[in-house]
Design goal:
With 153 residues, the protein is mainly α.
Length: 153
């Protein structure tokens, strides 16, 4: 048993020498969702607090992102989040894709699938109240409608 604990401890120490890359891509304000959609401050605050760590290039890494293997899980969540929706590069999406992404936002917020429950562990301020969820859903619906109207000539 003692040998197993020593092996686990040594392995834990060794994996600390393989840190994740915590460099964020350089933000481009002209492509950011909150800027291009002229998001009201109160709504922007909710989106920034509850979405931007995983769905933008403005991630604020928590302290446990410095400790493997939790750092690997954090980095994987961020990579997956940015792959599915990156608010920092929202303007590069074609209007049809923007509308689709907004529809997904509506669905995920309504179904309480976003933010992820696991995200609340280190980010209690990201937990959305029912009122905040309503605000986000209404806002995303409005942005989706505006995007779709702009697609029709």
């Amino acid at each position: 048993m003692k040998k197993i604990l020593i092996v686990v401890l040594v392995a834990f120490i060794i994996i600390q020498f393989f840190p994740i890359d915590k460099t964020n891509p350089t933000p481009t304000p002209g492509m950011d969702f909150l800027k291009i959609k002229k998001t009201p401050t109160d709504v922007a605050k909710i989106i920034n607090t509850s979405c931007y760590d995983c769905h933008s290039n403005e991630t604020k890494y928590p302290w446990y992102a410095d400790i493997a293997p939790s750092s690997w899980l954090v980095k994987n969540h961020i990579n997956e989040g940015r792959k599915h929706l990156n608010f920092s590069t929202f303007a590069v999406y074609e209007p049809k894709r923007q509308a689709h992404k907004l529809e997904e936002c509506i669905e995920m917020v309504e179904k309480k699938e976003m933010p992820l429950e696991s995200y609340y562990i280190g980010h209690q301020d990201a937990k959305l109240t029912d009122d905040q969820r309503k605000i986000l859903v209404q806002y995303f619906k409005k942005m989706k409608e505006e995007t779709e109207r702009a697609m029709v000539f």
